[in-house]
Amino acid sequence: MKNFFKAIIAFLIAFTFVAIPIKATSKVPKEVKAACEKWGEEYGICPELLESIAYEESRYTADAKSKDGSCLGLMQIHKASHKQRIKNLEIKDLYDIDDNVQVATDYLAELFEEYEEVSTVLMIYHGEKDAVRKGEQGKISRYAKRVLKRSESLERAHNK
Questions:
Q1: What whole-number distance in Å separates Cα of residue 68 and Cα of residue 34?
Q2: Which site from 29, 48, 92, 139 is most exposed, i.e. has the minimal number of CB atoms within 10 Å?
Q3: 96 and 131 Cβ atoms separated by less than 8 Å
Q4: Are strands 77-78 and 71-72 parallel, antiparallel or unpaired?
């Protein structure tokens, strides 16, 4: 629960710097929404943040694959980087929405534990160069801004 509140506070701080107009729809696919709610609750991460990442990474496409084939599924999990995590979580199929969201949420929880600030976490998740330094300088990437703005919109759409 402590991480959840840290994430919310960090989100609110980061949101004050966000100025990209994004219209988020509440039409998140049912299976995506269910997985994000399930794992968000389990790990103390806002489900709308997870939904927003899923949209940004794959437009909610469960069988998405990066151009080079290294990132898979809804949340674009880099299989090689998360090999041990996948094994520890006993994940069988990264194209399965529930499995994919679990791996992503587990990784995000680890990042929140270490970095706390949501925009920094998002930039690291996205694999951005110098993400920690940028975060320390108060810089927020376009990716992080889009995710945060969509997350805020989704929260409104979900009456939160």
A1: 29
A2: 92
A3: no
A4: antiparallel
